[in-house]
Amino acid sequence: MSSTSFTRDEIRAAAETHNELGHDYQAAVIDSFLDKVGREIDARVDARLAAPHLARPARRPAPFALAVVSLALGIPLTAIAAAISGLSGLLVVWIGITAINLAYAFQARQPAGRRWK
Q1: Disulfide engineering: 65 pairs with which of 25, 51, 61, 96, CB 3.0-4.6 Å?
Q2: 40 and 4 in contact (C-beta within 8 Å)?
Q3: pTM of the prediction?
Q4: Residue 108 vs residues 32, 61, 88, 95: alpha-carbon distances, Å
Q5: Three-state SS for 111?
Q6: Are 5 and 40 in contact (CB under 8 A)?
Q7: Average of pLDDT values for 98-117?
């Protein structure tokens, strides 16, 4: 990871220093300790981001799952749209569902470097 990893002795020393110095220096000791903790967290995050084996590819739903969800949502939306606005509502619902599925299918076929970000 990094060379700034904390040991129990360092944490104990910071706590003892905090107690010994009194109210005048307590804020400075706390600020110094929190600054060191922040640098340690930053170093660990940077190390993880730099490690290619830890990078996870973005997970995308399977096309079958998208189709099932589209149908599951399409059925109640069809009933609602038909009850409220008739044929025009049905067209809007199913054109929207079709557009979402086509956009997904088109994006899935693009080479990895050309996909939308």
Answers
A1: 61
A2: yes
A3: 0.43
A4: 49, 10, 30, 20
A5: coil
A6: yes
A7: 73
DSSP 54-70: G--PPP---HHHHHHHH
At 98, is the pLDDT very low, low, confident or very high (cuts 50, 70, 90)? very high
Q: Report how many helices (DSSP H) and strands (DSSP E) the chain contains, helices first.
A: 3, 0
Q: Which of 28, 33, 1, 27 is nearest to 14 (CA)?
A: 33
- 3 state SS of 66: helix
Q: Please give the Cα distance from 71 to 98 (Å, whole number).
A: 11
Two structure tokens written together for 3: 């060379």
C-alpha neighbours within 13 Å on the C-beta side of residue 10: 9
